[in-house]
Structures are given as C-alpha cells and as structure tokens.
Amino acid sequence: MGFTLLRSIFGLCAVSSSSRVTDFYSSNLRRRTSASKQQLTAIKSVTSTHPPPSRGIRRRRKNKDDKVLDNPYSKMEMARPDLRKSLSDFLEEARDFVGDGGGPPRWFSPLECRAHAQGSPLLLFLPGIDGTGLGLIRHHKKLGEIFDIWCLHIPVSDRTSFKDLVKLIERTVKSENYRLPNRPIYLVGESIGACLALDVAARNPNIDLSLILVNPATHVNNFMSKPLLGMLNVLPDGIPTLLEDVFGFKQGDPLTGMLDALSNEFSVQRMGGVGGGMLRDLFAVSANLPTLIRMFPKETLLWKLEMLKCAISSVNAHIYSVRAETLILPSGRDKWLLNEEDIVRYSRTLPKCIVRKLDDNGQFPLLEDSLDLATIIKLTCFYRRGKSHDYISDYIKPTPFELQQQLDEHRLLMDAISPVMLSTLEDGRIVRSLEGLPSEGPVVYVGYHMILGFELAPMVGLLLKERNIHMRGLTHPMVFMYIQDSLVDPKTFDKYKLMGGVPVSNMNFYKLLREKAHVLLYPGGVREALHRKGEEYMLFWPEQSEFVRVASKFGAKIVPFGVVGEDDIFNIVLDSNDQRNIPILKDLMEKATKDAGNLREGDESELGNQDCYIPGLVPKIPGRFYYYFGKPINLAGKEKELKDKEKAQEVYLQAKSEVEQCIAYLKMKRESDPYRHLLPRMLYQASHGWSCEIPTFDL
C-alpha cells in the first residue's frame, strides 16, 4: 500500500533554541505486493507549526442501563496482547528507511501515536546502532496514547559525529522546553542512544528531563569487538552487491518470499510459546537478510563502532553532571555492551535512579515479545505530566490484557480458594454478587487485612471485572521505595502499583475523595497485615477516627467489609516474636523495619508496634475465601454534623463494629458450606464444568 512519507529535517547548522523544522522533503514508499501484508507504521511529519488539538482517547457515553457493555474488563479473558507487532514488522519498515536516499539526521512521529491525550509529555526516542528510529515500533500504539512521540532517524550513509548528534538533540530539547516549559521531556535511548540521552541531560541540568535507558552501552567487550573489527577490515566493500549478484538473494525473490511466509506461519498467534516466537524471528531475519546487510554496510559498522567508543568515554566524563530522574532497563543476557558493575555505579551516581533488570531479555529487548515498555513505566510510577509524579492524576488504569496477566499470576490462588462474594442491598438483603456496592464514588471501603494481604488480588480483580469498580488502595509507602541492597525485590510490589495503589497520607486520601474514587483503606495497616500467631481476624484500629470527617466533606459512602479464610490455607509458625529470638532473622527484621519506616511511630498503643518481616507459613489443603460487604453508611449531608468529634467517633465505631459483624457472620456461615473444602469443589467442577460457579451456604 503506497503512501507518502513526509519527514522533517533538522540541519546541523547552528539555529536558535526557538527555531523549529524549516525544511521538508517527501519520498514515496515502495508498494507492498503481498496481499497478506498490511500497512505497518504510517508516518507523520514534525512540523514547525503548533500541532492540532489532540482528539484524545474516544470514550463511550455513560449509560446507566448499560453497565455491563461499558465495562472493558468484563471479557478480559478474550483480551489480545497490547503489543502485536514483531521483529518482522521492524525489518519490513526498515527497508524503506534504509533506502531513503540519505540526508542528515531528522525527527519523525508515527501516525500510530497521534491519539495521545491532551497534556501528554514529549518523548524523544534515540535509536541504537541501527539508527532507523524504529526501535519502538512494537510500542508505538500503546505509548502513543500517553506520550507525544518523536523518533530520531539517522540515515545509513550519515557520518554525523556523536558530539554533533548531542547538539542536534539538545537544540530540540531547548526548543520544546521554551515552547512548553511546564511539560516534561522524556529521552528514551537504546544502547548508544542511551549515551546520547545522558550527555544531553548532563549539558542541560536545569531542563525538566526524564531518562529511560534501555540496555545502555557502558563498555565495549574487547573479546568480541576486536575479532569483529578485524573481520570488517578484511571484508570487501560490496558485500550487499555480492550477495545479490552471486547468490541471487534479493528482496522479493521466491526464496525470500518463502521465508517470509514461514515467518508468518510461525507467528505467536498460531504457535504459542517461546519456541514459536524464536522460529518466527529466525525466518523473519532470514527473509530480510538483504535489508539487514544494507542497514549495516562495512563503512557504517566501522563508523558506529568508533562512535560507540567516543560515546562511552563522553558519558563516563559527564555522568556526574546529570540531575534528571533515570530509569535503567539492563538486559540480563547482553554481555557485549553492558557491564553490571557499570550499572551499579550509574545507579549510585545518578541522583534519582531506578534500575529494573530485564532478566530474560537479550541484545534488543525493545523488539522482544516479553517487554512492554508502557507497562514498565506504569509499574515503576515513572509517568508524569507535571514537575513530579502525582499518584492520583498521573495514574493510568491497566488494560484488560494487563489485568488478565495479573489475575493469571494469581490463578492458582484463585482456583484454590474459589472466592465467595456477598454484598448488601439497600433494603438490607444479602446477595451473592457485588450488586450492593455503590457504582458512583466517592466510596471508602474499610475492612480487615489478611496476613500479607492475601485477600487483595481476588477482591480488586473481581470488582474490576464484574462491576468496573476500580479500588484505589491507600498503601504503605515502602511499596513505592527503591532502596539500594533492599531485602525485597521491588518487582514484588508491581501488582499494587499497576492496580492503583497510592502512598497512604492525609493529602492523598483527600485528593482521591475529591476525584470521586473508590478508596480502599485498612485502618489496621501493617500491624494487621503482619499480625502474629493467634491474632487472626483481630482488628488493630486506632482509638480515634482518622477518616470519617474527611469522608464527610465529600458526602462519601463508607462500605464496611469482612473477609475470612486465611486460617483455611496456612498456619503461622514463625511470627515476629519468634524471629526476634533468632539472631540472623532479628537483624533482617530490624533492617526491613528501619527501611520501611513506622507510620505509627510515637503511638504507644499496640498499633505502634509494627515490625516488617516475612512470617513463616505452613500451607494447608486450601479451604475457601469469603467476602462480605456490609450496607453502605451514607455521609451525604452530614458534613456539619460530623465536625463534632464525638459524632464522628460514633460513625467510626459503627463502621468498626460492622466489620467485626461481617467477620463473625462469615465465620459462622462457612461452617454450613458443603463446598468449603477443596475436594468437594473439585468434584462439583468435574461434573458441572471447570468454569461453573460453585454453590455455597444458604443466605
């Protein structure tokens, strides 16, 4: 499918910081001849005029009688992966960039990225050694919804030095910062592109930049590079011509056509798993071998390797001047340009640095199926539209596929506990559904916190899936901390951040209610979630109300809930009292408690006795989880009344009492559940189907 590519050219001559693109040229892309291929990445130019207002993300009009259809999570089991492009798409698009006729480096913006929301930050992608600027091709559509994306294209024949590339990017950064000074600018660099990003940040410490460094080139492995340089120096200059003329291996020939068809046949959709993906990529590379050879001719490779050495030397000299926040994504299997010791040094040198290792990725992680850059940005809370990240306004809800992945990670738990969800209607009737929960916020859910928060995944996931109710949990700040040499891998807390966890504070609670959110609050906090032996189903709430009066300002509803079942899946055999008697565990517990901090420090009650530790648990043959949401307590119109501390205390004690009643009700009723234990549930599913709803006690 032919279409015109309009690109913006940034000349290398000196221009003022407010200057934008001044010259354009167009080239027609070759027509696709295969009927099975569709247009992959359309391109729009980055022009000198202000862009038209974004259309944003189209939303359906709310319909009170259409709740199920409006819920994007109701059929998430059928959700397709968010990223559907592959290495084959990259190589096909690269054909047109390799044969673009040269010219200076320039910016382009993919049309797939045109739907970004109003106020989205700018993202400048700085390519790796390939220079095409297509390294984000798998991520264009998803990132394009939250960023205004520009990609740097460096033609194959271009010989711009590293220093001049830095100046080119710097001019763009200064120009955009001058035009929109309150908009953050993200520099996403891969390999040598990461070196460009670091150098630009070092030269502009006063500009609001955020760096995402994917597999940053920190050193050159001489064991691998010297033989490569030696081989390149003895190779003839006309390798691409020899390949075509002597071996008859040309793009579009029957041989490449056959390999291209095999690449499609072994796509992930038809042959799942790692094996299918590897075969698909193997055939894709084979089918596009002429493109790869033209992308990396001998002269270009020699130039890029020399530039790489210059880049690494420059970064090591300037890294101490970088003030920008940084997210480093090193691959676990890249041994050529990546040195783990350098990554550790970077993380300790850069003032605001997060390192998230990609254990299963190789040399080109952005083109691998297992990496979703937008999801990683969500999981690290690295997205912001202003000067700093706002956990409320900058939060991006999970896609149906992301939610399905989270539930799949807890699939074993979900299948083992077969959760029963009960709620209370306005007339006081108890129903086995979530029908009794308010649809509109603000709502505050207060309840009992199981050990290690085992109740969270089923509850939050099912509320989203069945009612499209997104619970924003007020979470201990340790979930959002990145501490050097921490005892806990930060990835452990990914699910809390993806599902909308917010650091607990009075201000965040106020802002959530102002946004009419559904807020999940555990007054018992860490003390309740890390309780000790014999403390199951005990509430460790403060003596004084801490949330009622704030909730009343917004006319919120308070929904008390109880959950039982932890004593049916494990026993606590090693609690904090036991671990204090074991020197090694005592030291670990004290370090973890110090790192996490005590939000109740100074509280002389039992609530202030908070220890951060991993309890020793012995699993049982799993029983069942039961959730019971009580009748909402409506605070609308009671703001003046609840300014009286005594009145607010009465509502607080009412909510606490109803949580205790919910727990007592569930503990009593589960005794009459014929399917409380695992074996009867398995037998029922074997005869009625594995996806059927398992009955429970009579209501």
UniProtKB/TrEMBL annotation:
Residues 1-19 form the signal peptide. GO terms for cellular component: membrane. Pfam families: DAGAT, Hydrolase_4. GO terms for molecular function: diacylglycerol O-acyltransferase activity. It comes from the Eukaryota. One of its GO terms (biological process) is triglyceride biosynthetic process. Transmembrane segments: none annotated. Keywords: Acyltransferase, Signal, Transferase. Residues 162-241 form the Serine aminopeptidase S33 domain. Residues 45-75 are annotated as: Disordered. Belongs to the diacylglycerol acyltransferase family. PANTHER family: ESTERASE_LIPASE_THIOESTERASE FAMILY PROTEIN-RELATED, TRANSMEMBRANE PROTEIN 68. This is Diacylglycerol acyltransferase. It comes from Arabidopsis suecica (Swedish thale-cress).
